[in-house]
Amino acid sequence: MPKRELKMLSAKLTDEALSLCRAGEGHEAVKDQLRFAAAGVETHVREAIEHQTGRVAIAELKAAEKDCRETSYWLSLLTRNGILPKAEGEGVGLLCQKLQRRLGGAIREREARLAERTERPSTEVTIPTTRLLLRSFSGRYAVSLPTLVAEEERRLVGLTCRDREEALRQIRLWQERDEMLAVLRQRDGRFVGFVGLMTEAHPHIRRLTVAIAGDARLRGYGTEAVRGALSYGFSKLGMTVAVATLHREEAVMRKILTHCGFREEGILRGAAEDGGDLLRLSCLKGEWQS
């Protein structure tokens, strides 16, 4: 079930239910039940799609499905008793039934994926480099993550992580998709950053993201982490193209990426949050191996 369709249908249901409640006068307390139920559908759908993963996302979708049933009940009650126009009410009811079917499909699909992951043997990744270990992300790194993301705000295009709760949510998403690796120093096991290959529209294309803590920079850790991640992506993940987007003024990261085989493709003018330009780079598997 495409996420965009769920969001579109739930938003449309809320809008049409609220519009319907404005037709006719009186019985506002009963109409509020319809308003609350329809708005609950959209709220739970957005939470499931934008902020949650795994079992939590499934629970949110089930809550949306429950609110959908309640919306249908209140629609039927209000139109049957002449409080709301019957024809318009039936139209909203059909939309509600369609959304309920879509939610049921999305729930079954996610439950099947979750069961498949649960049954699979552990796929924890550990990649040794000269001085580092790249290891599957876990919740133990949640405390350090917000500070690191804040330090690297200009480099980490599209990633925000303001507190531990948001960090845990982000880590769960990374774990579900097998996208991000923690960067640990071999000699003491200290968490010094992260490197990831984020999934794009096509499975063979991944977007590189890397961040190294401030007091661990200028030691070559970034270059070492990027090389380790590229080697893993090209040899184990079926990746054929790695892409990266960074602020045009990020000279250090630009140097690291070009040193690791990335080539500059183009500039997205004015696309950065501060109004500056973004630089787009890519690295092909054939170029990496040559």
Quick structural overview:
The chain has 290 residues and is of the alpha+beta class.
Rg from C-alpha positions?
24 Å
Mean pLDDT: 81
Number of helices: 9
- The SSE string, one letter per element, is HHHHEEHHEEEHEHEEH
Instruction: State which percent range the strand residues make up.
Output: 15-25%
Helix content: 40-55%
The description of the largest β-sheet is: 8 strands, mixed
- What general outline do the C-alpha atoms trace? elongated
Which class best fits the helix and strand makeup?
Answer: alpha+beta
Biggest sheet strand order reads 1-2-3-4-5-6-8-7
Q: Give the uncertain stretches in residue-range form.
A: none
The N- and C-terminal alpha carbons lie at a distance of: 41 Å
**Beta-strand segment tally:** 8
Features:
9 helices; 8-stranded mixed β-sheet; 290 residues; single chain; alpha+beta
Could you please describe the fold and organization of this structure?
The chain has helices at residues 3-21, 28-50, 54-80, 86-119, 145-151, 164-177, 221-236, 251-259, 285-289, and strands spanning 126-128, 132-136, 180-185, 191-199, 205-212, 241-247, 263-268, 278-284. It has nine helices and eight strands. The chain starts with a helix and ends with a helix. The chain has an eight-stranded mixed sheet with strand order 1-2-3-4-5-6-8-7, sandwiched between helices. Helix 3 runs antiparallel to helix 4. The protein is of the alpha+beta class. Strand 5, helix 7 and strand 6 form a beta-alpha-beta unit. The mean pLDDT is 81. It is 53% helix and 18% strand.
Write the topology of this structure:
Layout: H1 3-21, H2 28-50, H3 54-80, H4 86-119, E1 126-128, E2 132-136, H5 145-151, H6 164-177, E3 180-185, E4 191-199, E5 205-212, H7 221-236, E6 241-247, H8 251-259, E7 263-268, E8 278-284, H9 285-289
Parallel strand pairs: 5-6
Antiparallel strand pairs: 1-2, 2-3, 3-4, 4-5, 6-8, 7-8
Helix pairs in contact: 1-2, 1-4, 2-3, 3-4
